[in-house]
Design brief:
By secondary structure, this protein is an alpha/beta fold. The protein has 9 helices and 11 strands. It has one domain (2-229): Purple Acid Phosphatase, chain A, domain 2.
Length: 232
Amino acid sequence: MKLYAMSDIHGCLAEFEDALELVLDHLEGPDTMLVLLGDYIHGGPDGRKVLDRIMSLQENYGRDRVVTLLGNHEEMVLRGESTVDYMTRKFLEEPIHDDEDDKYIAWMEELPRYYVEGNSIFVHAGIDEEAGDMWEWSTDDWTLTWRFPATTGRIPGLDAKVVAGHVYTSQVAGNPHFHGIYYDGASHYYIDGDVLTSGYIPVLLVDTKEDSYYRVTQGGTWKIEPYEELDY
C-alpha cells in the first residue's frame, strides 16, 4: 500500500490544490490512499471551500481511499468554541453556531482521531508514548488532537512510526527557515510545514510494503533523511 499524507491545510485552498496535483493521478491506481491529518480550517480565507473539496474527494474515491482525521480546529467547532469561519480559543459561556456549518459539523462528527496502516500511525497531534505498543488502549482524546509539545527520539516499546501534524516543523527543528518534513531518525515524522508562512503543504509518501518514507515534490520523490543529516 502507498499512502500520501498531508496535514494542517488551514483554509488555504490554492496551496491544497497544488499539493493534490502531486497525488490525484496516483489515486486512480490500486493500493493507493490519501490520508489527511486534520486542521482543515482557520487561518486562510477558504475554510468552507477546503472542506467542500475534501468531501468531494471522498465522494469520488471513497472514504476508504481518502481518510480524513479530526484535528483540534475541527474539534473546536464541534465544541461550539468556533465556527468554520471564526476561530476563538477563549472559553465561551454559550456555544457559538452558524447554521451554514451544519453539514460540516455532521461530517466532522464522523472523523476518526487516528489511522493505522502497516508500520505507520497517522494522527493529528500524538499518542501516549509512555504506553509503548499499548498506545491504542491508553491514549486519550486530548492527546490525539492537542498533544503539545512535539517529542522526538525513539519511542520505547513501539516499532511503529508516528506521522503527525499540529506542530510546525520549523518549531520541531528549531529552525525558522525549515518548512519541510521533519524526521527524527527514530520514531517520528512531522509534516505541518506552516502553510500560512511557507505557502505550500508538504506531501509525505509512505510505502508500507517497503516501510519507506518519501517527500513528494514537483521535482521528484525523495527518500526522507533525518533532519540532523540535512544541509542547513
